[in-house]
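Quick one: structure for this chain?
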Amino acid sequence: MKDFYAQLVDGYDQNLNKDGVNGERLAKRFASLAEIGVSEQRFWRPGYSADEKKAKELVKEWMREAGFHVREDGAGNVIGRLEGKNAEAKAIASGSHVDSVPNGGHFDGPLGVLAALEVAEAWRETGYQPEKPYELLIFSDEEGSRFNSGLSGSMAMTGEADLDEFTALTDFNGTSFEQVLTEYGSSLEGYRKAKRDITEELELFVELHIEQGKKLEQEQQPVGIVSGIAGPAWLEVVFTGEAGHAGNTPMRGRKDPLVAAAAFIQRVAELPATISDTAVATVGKLDVSPNGTNVIPQEVKLIVDLRDIHEEPRDQLLEAVRQEANRISKSSGVAAKLSQKTKIKPIPVEEKWQSQLSESLRKFNITPIRIPSGAGHDAMILGRHIAVAMLFARSRDGISHNPREWTSLNDCVTAAHILKDFIEQQQSATAG
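Got it. Here's what it folds into:
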């Protein structure tokens, strides 16, 4: 803890300790969480693990000290609530997650949780009472590193989780989702009952996260505004040709699926720019069979990951990729089989919230920069049901999901101030 804490406070600007927000307190809490899930080999807090639960229990203790009424639902989501002057009003909510990817970093997730907690700590120190209820949410298993299927907590809270799909999941040890829940202290029935009527209970959810990119660093700004959260569409493409001996099969007349796949992948990289300036496409997984040095492949299977923060251009890109696969199949004589694997609705952030976040940034002399989020977040799941807003804090070298992940304490505290200011704007605003 001491080494990580010392790194955080080294060079910290004490002038940022104001309006009840305290950088040293935030740093100590980052350092305490960073100790949970550490082994000699790596750092890892999988969803629904003893370490994720331990991290939640620690934050729950801090939440109670800050005045929250705290409960945990059957999906393991932690829900802290501060009552407002108007107890009947819908709540303003903020938070994130405390699980991690294998060998990940200490800011992805915890920044959003601890900054949301720091807002309440600042209110307690300054005697501010919110008009509307305020909730701090810690979602379970956001990263999905245990079951290769993340956002489990937010999907349970919104009622989006398909129990048939979840019961079919097994973790890295072959343990079923149901057994993992039992070991965690819940059950499938408890997971099902985690659903809330959030449209009636929550007015807005705002999430603070590290950027996972270099835009803010390039623009020399500590905090930016998320313009939308990209929805991924995954398309599996299987090219099937004719296997043969690499030395005895003439080049002319070959039906090589890897050559076809290579031409296809090149086009996948070129297509997004023809459709949208926020669209991206990636082929990150390729399976070649039989995968021999001196064998022309029989089959190549790949998955195309397509994303945009707007649904229409994302779907246009998806169709363009389909057409390109079929065109290359026809011209090469190699068969192509296409299968849709995932298609998640993107969530643009309403201009209203982006404008109000801009106001908060300008109060701290920060130039508003709007950035699309290519990664998924719990805000994406909640955003299908209620209004959401999102902030990014600068990440050194744009690194995330890596032990070198780093956001300076100055930037973390600045982001907490902006989150606090924005939430206070909503506290004084009339709903609707």
